[in-house]
């Protein structure tokens, strides 16, 4: 700062305006009640001349952004994700600015890591680069706070619900990891339908060092029994994965857990995969699950057919591990049988051919894997008349290669 003596070492550690603004929020975050997040955000935005602040969260069906109510927040109608400025900010993960008669309306994505939580919207009379930088960082801090406080309250759950949710769906949603994750070398995204009645489908993933672990499961049956079985299957998968054992041993552990808990007449189809995000080397075990699709340059190249073993719970033999080296930009689409087996009464099944057709038709939409998996799921639901008699889950992985070393440097 001009006229100010610098401390030893020549670094100015004084607090600037932006740091004070963000620091106030950060200092209070650890003890702030969830319902106070909105009012404080509105107050902070007002200090830079902003007004009409809205915080919108994604609904469970990924169709709408629903406004959070609260003192000093502007609460309007839920906004469709498709075809709106606020939806574009959400899908693309980028700020969208719209000129209005009384200023500029800004829509900033709320990103927790790389998972889109929702959007923060506000109006400024004019917008400069300093405003954009400060508000982008504020939106990131708001997203982190919403995710942190999410487990302390039912308020955010209720905002995201646009219809009643079944008990099995409640269980399944509480079991899921974030619906999307992006790092420089890879990206993942998943979606579940029917969002408010899903029971036996689930997926899980974890990035441990350079290895991306992911799995998709489909428990037999419907309702609470299926949700309970899916819970045990995912719990067993996580436990075995964290023990550092191989895919064959993970299958055996899950198999014993399901058989021991539910007996010989119950099963879970499963697909467990591991991807080295530095080399693109993929390994997988298929336990009675539909073979995933390999997508290259926006088109399905083939299904990853290979040796299969019995579903988890049936005591199958030690599974054979399949392997493949991906090319940069390759995508893998895993899906449950509800995606392709749905049919109108007396009609033909939807089928793998139609799934491949619509994947090819979708191509590579702007917004990456999150936008693609959402587009395909909603397209398929539309082709089935907006309903499904079975869970229909999609999980998409993209391998990009490269390194993330630059993110650990301040230069």
TrEMBL record:
Q: Which Gene Ontology MF annotations are present?
A: protein serine/threonine phosphatase activity
Give one Pfam family, short name only: SpoIIE
Which keywords appear in this protein's UniProt record, sorted alphabetically? Hydrolase
The PPM-type phosphatase domain sits at 183-399
- In short, the EC number is 3.1.3.16
Q: Which SUPFAM superfamilies match?
A: PP2C-like
What InterPro entries would the database entry show?
Bact_Sigma-Reg, PPM-type-like_dom_sf, PPM-type_phosphatase-like_dom
Q: Which SMART domains match?
A: PP2C_SIG
Q: State the PANTHER family in the record.
A: STAGE II SPORULATION PROTEIN E (PTHR43156:SF2), STAGE II SPORULATION PROTEIN E-RELATED (PTHR43156)
| Official protein name in the record | PP2C family protein-serine/threonine phosphatase
């Amino acid at each position: 700062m001009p006229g100010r003596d610098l401390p030893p070492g020549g670094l100015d550690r004084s607090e600037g305006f932006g740091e004070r603004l963000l620091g106030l929020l950060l200092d209070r975050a650890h003890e702030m009640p969830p319902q106070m997040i909105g009012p404080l955000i509105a107050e902070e935005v007002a200090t830079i001349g902003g007004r009409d602040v809205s915080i919108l969260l994604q609904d469970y069906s990924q169709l709408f952004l629903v406004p959070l109510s609260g003192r000093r927040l502007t609460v309007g109608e839920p906004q469709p994700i498709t075809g709106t400025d606020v939806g574009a900010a959400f899908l693309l993960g980028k700020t969208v600015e719209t000129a209005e008669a009384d200023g500029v309306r800004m829509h900033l994505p709320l990103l927790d890591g790389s998972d889109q939580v929702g959007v923060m919207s506000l109006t400024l009379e004019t917008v400069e680069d300093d405003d954009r930088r400060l508000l982008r960082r504020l939106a990131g801090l708001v997203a982190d706070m919403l995710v942190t406080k999410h487990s302390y309250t039912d308020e955010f759950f209720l905002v995201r619900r646009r219809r009643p949710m079944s008990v099995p769906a409640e269980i399944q949603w509480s079991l899921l990891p974030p619906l999307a994750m992006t790092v420089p070398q890879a990206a993942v995204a998943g979606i579940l339908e029917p969002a408010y009645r899903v029971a036996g489908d689930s997926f899980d993933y974890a990035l441990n060092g350079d290895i991306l672990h992911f799995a998709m499961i489909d428990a037999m049956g419907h309702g609470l029994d299926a949700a309970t079985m899916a819970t045990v299957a995912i719990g067993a998968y996580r436990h075995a994965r964290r023990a550092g054992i191989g895919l064959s041993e993970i299958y055996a552990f899950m198999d014993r857990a399901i058989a021991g808990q539910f007996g010989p007449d119950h099963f879970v189809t499963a697909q467990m995969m591991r991807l080295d995000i530095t080399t693109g080397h993929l390994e997988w075990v298929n336990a009675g699950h539909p073979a995933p699709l390999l997508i290259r340059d926006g088109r399905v190249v083939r299904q990853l057919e290979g040796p299969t073993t019995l579903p988890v719970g049936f005591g199958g033999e030690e599974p054979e591990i399949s392997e493949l080296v991906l090319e940069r930009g390759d995508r893998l689409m895993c899906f449950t049988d509800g995606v392709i087996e749905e049919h109108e009464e007396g009609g033909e099944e939807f089928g793998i051919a139609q799934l491949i057709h619509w994947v090819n038709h979708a191509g590579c939409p702007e917004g990456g894997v999150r936008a693609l998996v959402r587009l395909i799921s909603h397209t398929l639901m539309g082709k089935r008349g907006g309903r499904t008699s079975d869970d229909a889950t999609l999980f998409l992985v993209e391998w990009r290669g490269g390194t993330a070393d630059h993110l650990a440097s301040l230069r």
